[in-house]
Amino acid sequence: MRYLLLILFAPLVLAGDGNGVHVTTLPLASVWFLPEQSDPAEVVALNRSRLAAEISARIERIAVRAGDQVAAGDLLVELDCRDHRSRLAQQQAELERLQTQIARAEQRLRRARNLSSQQNIAEEEIEARNTELDSLSAQARAQQAAIEQQRRNVQRCQLKAPFAGQVTARLASEAELASPGTPLIELLQLDQLELEAQVLPQVGEDQLLDRPMELHFSHQQRDYPVALARRFVSIDPRTGLTRLRLSFSGKPPLPPPGASGRLLRRLTQPHLPADYLQRRGEQLGVFIYQQGKAHFEPLPGALEGRPAAIDLPGDSLLIDQGRQGLTDGDAVLDSSPKPAE
C-alpha cells in the first residue's frame, strides 16, 4: 500500500514548487492573426449621363459607337445647324439696323441740343429725341441678348463629351429629328469611381475610423486599397443593410464600373484566438513564459469567447499546454519540443 501511494503522488512532487509545472510554449506571432470581415461591394461611376439634345434639329452625324472611349470635348453628335445659323445671321442683321438707327438718333439729338442753345427748338422736342434714343438702345440690348442665345444654340448643334469616359449606348440614329430633351448618347465616366458596399447598420464610422484597420476591395484575386468617403444613414428595408461609399486610394488601373467583389475590413492589430484566454479574478488574459515563471498578462477589453487584441512582442512565449491551472508567478518548466538543428 505504501508503494502504491508513492507511485500516485510522484507526479505531483515532480510538478511542485521544487521543479515547476511542465508546460509547452508557442511564439505569439505563430498563433495570432489579423481579424478580417467582408461585405458585398460594387464599383460605381460618379457619372453615368444620358446626354440629350438641347435644340430642335435633325441628327446629321453620330461620331461615336458604343464602347468607344472619348476625351472631354470630343465630338459625339452633330445636328443639322443650317436653320439656327440662318436665325443668327438674321438677328445680327437686325442688330446692325438698330445700331444704324441709334447713330441717326444721336445725330438728331445733338442737332436738337444745338438748336436749343439758340432757343430755336422747344424743350419737348429734345425730350422726344432722348426718348427715341433710349428706346432704340433698349431694343439693341435686347437684340444683343437674343444673338447670344442664338450663338449658344449654334454651339448646341454639336454635342461634345462633358468628361472623359466610355460611350455605353447610342440612344438615337442619324436622320432622326431631335427635340430638346431627346436622349442621344449614354456616357460613363471612367476616372471618377467609388466603391459602394452594403454593411450591417452597427458597422458605423467609429468602427471604421477609430480602429487601426486596412480597407481593401477584393476583385478577381486582386486587392485595391480604399478609404471611407461617406456613410448612408438610411437602412434598406429589404435587406436590413446600410451603404458605405469608399474612394479608391491606390494608383490606376482600377477595376471597371460595375465590377463586384468584397470589401475587406482587416484590423492591423494582432488578435489571439479565444481558446488561449484565461480568467483570473475579474480579468481575462494570457500566460507568458519569462525566465522560468508564468506571468499573467491581462488583456483590456477582452471578452469571453471572442478573439482578443494583444499588444505584446511577437517573440513572446505564450504558454499553451498546462495553462489552465496556473497563477501569476508560478514556476514552470518549458517542455516544448526543441526544433531540429
Could you provide a short overview of the structure?
This protein has four helices and 23 strands. By secondary structure, it is α+β, with helices and mostly antiparallel strands.
Describe this structure in words.
The chain is α+β, with helices and mostly antiparallel strands. It has 4 domains: 18-33 and 271-334, conserved putative lor/sdh protein from methanococcus maripaludis s2 fold (Beta Barrel); 36-46 and 191-267, Beta Barrel (Elongation Factor Tu (Ef-tu), domain 3); 50-79 and 156-189, Beta Barrel (OB fold (Dihydrolipoamide Acetyltransferase, E2P)), CATH 2.40.50; 82-154. The chain is 26% helix and 35% strand. It has helices spanning 2-14, 82-117, 123-155, 205-209; strands at 21-23, 25-27, 36-45, 48-52, 57-62, 69-70, 75-79, 158-160, 165-170, 177-178, 183-189, 193-199, 213-219, 222-231, 242-248, 260-267, 271-272, 278-280, 283-290, 293-298, 308-309, 317-319, 330-334. The strands form 5 sheets. Strands 1, 2, 18, 19, 20, 22 and 23 form a 7-stranded mixed sheet that branches. Strands 3-12-15-14-13-16 form a 6-stranded antiparallel beta barrel. Helix 2 (82-117) packs antiparallel against helix 3 (123-155). It is elongated and about 135 Å long. The two termini are 46 Å apart.
CATH topology of the largest domain, by name, is Elongation Factor Tu (Ef-tu), domain 3
How many helices? The count is 4
Quickly give the structural class. alpha+beta
CATH homologous group name of the largest domain:
Efflux pump adaptor protein, beta barrel domain
Largest sheet: 7 strands, mixed
Helix content: 25-40%
Assigned CATH architecture of the largest domain: Beta Barrel
User: What integer value in Å does the Rg equal?
Assistant: 41 Å
- Can you give the mean pLDDT? 88
Principal-axes geometry comes out as elongated
Task: Tell me the fraction of residues in β-strands, as a range.
Answer: 35-45%
User: From N to C, what is the helix and strand string?
Assistant: HEEEEEEEHHEEEEEHEEEEEEEEEEE
In CATH, what is the class of the largest domain? Mainly Beta
Distance between the termini: 46 Å
Beta strand count: 23
Oligomeric state of shown chains: single chain
Q: What is the total number of structural domains?
A: 4
Poorly predicted residue ranges: 1-17
